[in-house]
Write a structure and sequence with these properties.
Blueprint lengths: L1 H14 L5 E8 L4 E7 L9 E6 L6 E4 L3 E6 L3 E11 L16 E12 L4 E7 L4 E7 L6 E3 L2 E3 L6 E3 L1 H12 L5 H8 L5 H11 L14 E18 L9 E17 L7 E20 L4 E25 L3 E8 L1 E17 L5 E6 L8 E4 L2 E7 L3 E15 L3 E17 L1
Antiparallel strand pairs: 1-2, 1-5, 2-3, 3-4, 5-6, 6-7, 7-8, 8-9, 9-10, 11-12, 13-14, 13-23, 14-15, 15-16, 16-17, 16-18, 17-21, 18-19, 18-20, 21-22, 22-23
């Protein structure tokens, strides 16, 4: 157990500092372009500084909005510096004010380019308050915020969609306002996908196709090998010192998907995994001298499990990743064998075996907290280890019976 405490508490703190330098370039204020490597992170907010290495140099320098005009991770993300107005009102309903709040700050920040075209560009900017979107066009290159405001007069939610007029003004300035575009804008939700669709219309590049973002998801199929022990606690014959709890190895199947917070970094991800796994165990205890009594409890079970997990790549290399995480598993157990025998051994090799009514497994649906770690090898293969500590299968006044399961897995990723 100390190993798991180390794995899930202390080691992640150390690994958070791990670098993830990817090929890219910066454009300095002078206009010079310098190629090198940029430390790509799980940016939950739009970064306003980066760590940069020139070429193969080992020295890292921190560059801010004051130092560079643009930075790009090749084939992944691009950020450009602009001086923009930033709305300050809240979007979470629990923090929304009763009166309409149109306050703004003017700052020089990096904006993330999420759609570029011959007529219009679309940018995104996130901070501690909310996510915002900006547009610029070939006639007005300064980005303008696509604003939306929420307020609660008399406890009723009101929404002011200023982004509609901004999109219409941009289309008119470019002589691209059509009835079809007007209808499209009125149906837009405040989301990147919907704004990209509208911007592509203005760029004559077609509407966005609604399909999963490549690289954001991965799907896997796997095989499992489990070792399960049935453990007694409390006042029971099989909880005596010297009792043995044999764990048998049994195969199973699993499948699931990963959703990555950042499809390029792939460090933090959510996993949903389902599995079917037979479990087999045997507990026994022998006592006495002249007459020895041995009691044996044999069980066979099948557990059907669904487990959402939050995972993190502690080591995040290109061809090797080491992940760890935990989650909440909902396990449904069926019992295929539940046999309890008591055997008396007498002198002269004589024995007498009796079948005893076994303990009832009355807890079929069980919530558990799995701990999981694994190695992802060359993108398609993963070797993993899963541990569930002592899930109770039955409870009485005097004793309880628990499953203690360790599972090893080998998975193949079909989509990456």
């Amino acid at each position: 157990m100390k190993f798991y405490l180390f794995l899930f508490i202390y080691l992640p703190v150390y690994c958070l500092a791990q670098s993830n330098f990817r090929e890219g370039f910066i454009i300095k204020n002078s206009g010079d372009t310098i190629h090198g490597f940029i430390n790509q992170k799980e940016w939950y907010k739009t970064p306003q500084s980066i760590e940069f290495r020139k070429g193969t140099a080992k020295n890292t320098e921190t560059l801010t909005v004051a130092d560079i005009a643009t930075f790009e991770l090749l084939g992944m993300e691009k950020y450009e510096r602009f001086r923009v107005r930033i709305s300050q009102d809240q979007r979470l309903l629990s923090n929304v004010s009763a009166a309409l709040d149109t306050s703004r700050l003017e700052r020089e920040v990096f904006l993330k380019l999420i759609e570029a075209g011959e007529n219009v560009n679309l940018y995104a900017y996130s901070d501690d308050i909310k996510e915002r979107f900006y547009i610029s066009d070939k006639k007005d290159k300064e980005p303008r915020e696509l604003e939306i405001h929420y307020y609660l007069p008399e406890k009723e939610v009101k929404i002011k969609r200023d982004y509609i007029s901004e999109l219409f003004n941009t289309a008119e300035r470019l002589n691209l306002k059509t009835d079809e575009f007007v209808s499209q804008v009125y149906e837009l939700k405040y989301s990147a996908a919907d704004f990209i669709s509208a911007i592509r219309t203005l760029n004559n590049s077609g509407a966005i196709r609604r399909k999963p973002n490549k690289g954001q998801f991965s799907v896997f199929l796997g095989t499992l090998l489990a070792r399960n022990q049935t453990v007694y606690t409390g006042s029971h014959f099989l909880n005596n010192p010297g009792a043995t709890n044999k764990g048998f190895y049994t195969p199973g199947l699993s499948a699931g998907l990963n959703w990555y917070n950042n499809k390029h970094v792939k460090r933090l991800f959510f996993r949903l995994e389902v599995s079917i796994l037979p479990l087999s165990s045997e507990s026994s205890f022998t006592q006495g001298e002249l007459i020895r009594r041995q009691e044996v409890h044999k069980t066979r079970q099948i557990v059907y499990s669904i487990a959402p997990l939050l995972m993190y790549n502690l080591y995040n290399g290109t061809n090797l990743k080491w992940n760890a995480g935990l989650g909440a598993a909902l396990n449904y157990y069926t019992v295929t064998e539940n046999q309890y025998t008591s055997t008396d051994f007498y002198s002269g090799g004589i024995s007498q075996e009796r079948k005893v009514t076994p303990p009832a497994f009355d807890e079929d649906l069980i919530f558990a907290i799995p701990l999981k770690t694994g190695f992802r090898i060359k993108k398609n293969w993963e070797i993993s280890l899963n541990y569930i500590h002592s899930t109770p299968r039955t409870k009485t006044i005097n004793y309880s019976i628990h499953n203690r399961t360790i599972t090893a897995g080998l998975s193949y990723f079909l989509l990456n």
